[in-house]
Amino acid sequence: MNRKVKIAQYGCGKMSKYLISYVLEKGAELVAAFDVNPDIVGKDISIITGGNPVGLKISPASDADTILKNTKPDACIIATRSTMEELKEAFSVCAKNGINAISTCEESLYPWNSSPDITKALDMLSKKNNCTLCGSGYPDLYWGTMITNIAASLAKITKIKGSSSYNVEDYGIALAQGHGAGLSIEEFEKQIGTCNNLSSEEIGALVKKGEYIPSYMWNQNGWLCSKLGLTIISQTQKCIPHTYHKDLRSDTLGMTVKAGNATGMSAIVTTKTAEGIVLETECIGKVYAPEEFDKNQWTLYGEPDTTIIVNKPSTVELTCATILNRLPQLIDAPAGYISTDKLPYSSYMVKPMNEYITSL
């Protein structure tokens, strides 16, 4: 591409500071920004990025259709909510206007196994208008391509066990609430843990009806199995609350989580495959106590057993940088909802972003 890549930002919360800064640093041009927060709508985007005003104001999300139609960005980065149900409006307005879109939404990484009807509808809409939709972020690499790359160094695999923890304070209120942070244990069981004792078949029936809310590892296991060529025969999930013995202040929730209440949860997903490989993965999202920190640990059992540990990863920045480095592949990909297991491995961009795009 012999011009700057044009980018729109949909959602101007905590993560957009890095997303916008990163794309600008790689030589892209920000042509639009949207949000629903009345406190920032109408203000210069510099309120998010810092520095002097740049002349681009944050528009209300309700104006996205008209503005996208007029500005025609090459891609839109969506950083709003965490489920496909919540995201379908943003994805739809992009697809309707033929705009490639990529989201930080965790479910969007591999929504085929949790929101099939929404994903199929978005797939049809994006194919009709010749654009690509997908999800990416920290899980794309640190729970995904990093694991499948390491798998290529083993002669035999019998089990893949993964665990990743993150502070919900870093990601905004939607994610914190989705992890049950601040709920009493009784409230947690009623709102979050309702499917803990369901069989794979019972969960599958809820998925078909659009009534199942997955944890992030639910989609991740689907992604891993697809990338590795594994055939899933059963998959179950349990959500277990975490607590702390002292009160913990949550600025994101705007409350103090009382001692003994849920600070967040572990979601444990077990997947069995026809090839005999079992995946047991756990994501731990909670309001951290002072001594806690992010940790990502994966063990591949087989020949030989191999463990990878990443302590204190900067998950917010890594999420945003992973999105950044996926943008050329998003723009060059075929039309449709194309999850990243179907894309080539991403790579670091040494040159300006436009030099990595061949389709325009």
TrEMBL record:
The coiled-coil segments of this chain are none
Provide the 2,4-diaminopentanoate dehydrogenase C-terminal domain boundaries. Answer: 145-356
- Superkingdom per UniProt: Bacteria
Q: Which InterPro entries match?
A: DAP_DH_C (IPR045760), NAD(P)-bd_dom_sf (IPR036291)
Q: Which Gene3D superfamilies match?
A: NAD(P)-binding Rossmann-like Domain
Name of the molecule in the record: Dihydrodipicolinate reductase
Q: What is the lineage of its organism?
A: Bacteria, Bacillati, Bacillota, Clostridia, Peptostreptococcales
